[in-house]
Amino acid sequence: MSPEHNTAPVTPPEQAAKAILARLYTPILPELRQVEEMYRRELSSDDEYIANLLEYIEDYSGKKLRPALLLLAGKACGKLTQDHIILGVVAEMLHTATLVHDDILDDALLRRKRTSINALAGNEVSVLLGDHIFSHAFEISLECTTPVGAREFSRAMARTCFGEIMQVHNRNNFNLPEPKYFDIIEGKTAELYATSAMLGAHYAGANEAVCRAFYDYGMNLGRAFQIMDDLLDMIGEESLVGKTLGSDVEKGKPTLPLIHHLEQVNGAGRKKALEAASKGDRKTLMELLHETESFKYAAAKAGAYVASAKNGLDVLPKGDMRDLLHEVADFVLSREL
Amino acid sequence: MSPEHNTAPVTPPEQAAKAILARLYTPILPELRQVEEMYRRELSSDDEYIANLLEYIEDYSGKKLRPALLLLAGKACGKLTQDHIILGVVAEMLHTATLVHDDILDDALLRRKRTSINALAGNEVSVLLGDHIFSHAFEISLECTTPVGAREFSRAMARTCFGEIMQVHNRNNFNLPEPKYFDIIEGKTAELYATSAMLGAHYAGANEAVCRAFYDYGMNLGRAFQIMDDLLDMIGEESLVGKTLGSDVEKGKPTLPLIHHLEQVNGAGRKKALEAASKGDRKTLMELLHETESFKYAAAKAGAYVASAKNGLDVLPKGDMRDLLHEVADFVLSREL
């Protein structure tokens, strides 16, 4: 994609993305189906009201990138086991729980083009439903043959929350240095990718160096993903992204293009950009950021992380699975996952 | 206590309650100190902002009844181990996390007479901070020598959330039948007590029957506690309880005295009570509930659960620890724990 060119749709249509993923997921399709089935089974309750809520949020589960990463990493390192299925479900449930809570944070009205759970059932229920899903995910993780998955996912989630808190705390802090921006996105986004990929390798019997390589692979993918997500929030189209748009800037969240722009301009330029941001004058802001090629800068950063992700897989033997994991990394650049 | 008599303070002063607990906690004092120290150590962060938040909510940790129950149950069944310390910390952290999230649900301005974390840092940070504490508690629980504690506490938390969701869903449902009321409080309150007591026994090597007896003990204590909490919300004094008062009725939460009253009166009486409740006319509501002895009824129910809790401990040999656990049960009736 070339986010620097204009504000027109920059992502391939939803359908094309789905087709690409369907192809990338081919080697793990039977196991991914098992993950989906178990996920549905586990999101249930005897109470009719709660059962309906859980059924409703099943839809939050989108492209299942986290379980897919976990399964692909496992497949690349050896044999997939029941532990992979369980932890695939855990990864997706933890992600779902964060989405449910994120909707409260974002005051989002839409999630995947449907009414979000907080708009539907209120913030109180959303908090509790997310808490339930967190707790149940941890419960499920203990069904594995070893506690490594439970330990790593609980550690990852604790870090994820810290990343999100730092993000909220730095709202409207347009002096946020780039390293702190990365601290935040590594926590709030990349950690769960990294842990998923690492655990996939671990439960397929990979040695520590390979596990570490997969952790880094997921981390780099997550960084690239979040940068692309920030970009799409500014330049995507609501119809494509399926969520309320431009909310990052409106909510004062310093994103990478904006951070880059503010580091490039002088005092007057800075004032101009912050004024446009605070007014929600998206058109002016877009023009200013294009002038400093800040979208281009952010896209290049995402590209560099994808390249690192791919290079890190040199620990694997050449072959189909390594090629496929390279393609998965490239896919992050092509659209919101 | 005699909650049916008037609206004057019904709890012994805070200091007296503390003195009673200090005595009840004597046999487990060194271990409780270890729990407190580890709890403080674990609620920390390199990020200054987050570290300050965590330090602030250390104060949420009040009488530490859940870790104390766990330790007392362990002491009654055998030797206390490092597993007990770890799980005591977990019990307290899970409780703290629910308090942090409850403040959002309650829109509470005060918690233990201090500004609540949501009033201080906003709902977003409160959601995330609670999520962090949940995740970290699960992480810590995996430091035990066996995964039983992690499994039981994650199961318990998942049920706790369901109980809370049912409570929100039944707000303003004044046709709530008493059994459903108990479903709700068993989930939202009693499950964590029950699991704490059961795990204390389990990790001291108790057999299944004794573990089950401690689970039931905690469950009955929890039921009694929640009934007393509901009572205190209606008839306590803000200065004593240290949180915003009468909020249950204002928020349309059907409590046991109200449920009982509505089951006793005819259509006209029902209308009168619901009008008073919906207007927040506490004085009228109190008078009506006194007429049907509904506070007395609720207090008697709490008393019956305390009696059951005590009887269930007949599996233990007679002795100091059993006597002390009886006293702990009685204490529930004396005030909010």
**CATH homologous superfamily identity of chain A:** Farnesyl Diphosphate Synthase
| Lateral arrangement of strands in the main beta sheet of chain A | 1-2
* Amount of helix of chain A: over 70%
Net shape of chain A: globular
Task: Figure out the total of helices of chain A.
Answer: 16
What integer value in Å does the Rg of chain A equal?
A: 20 Å
Report the largest inter-chain contact: A-B, 41 and 41 residues
| Average pLDDT score of chain A | 87
How many distinct domains of chain A? Answer: 1
**CATH class group of chain A:** Mainly Alpha
Distance between the termini of chain A: 14 Å
What is the CATH fold-level name of chain A? Farnesyl Diphosphate Synthase
Number of strands of chain A: 2
State the order of secondary-structure elements of chain A, H for helix, E for strand. HHHHHEEHHHHHHHHHHH
What is the oligomeric state here? homodimer
Largest sheet of chain A: 2 strands, antiparallel
CATH architecture annotation name of chain A: Orthogonal Bundle
Structural class of chain A: mainly alpha
As a percent range, the share of strand residues of chain A is under 5%
Low-confidence stretches of chain A: 1-11, 238-245
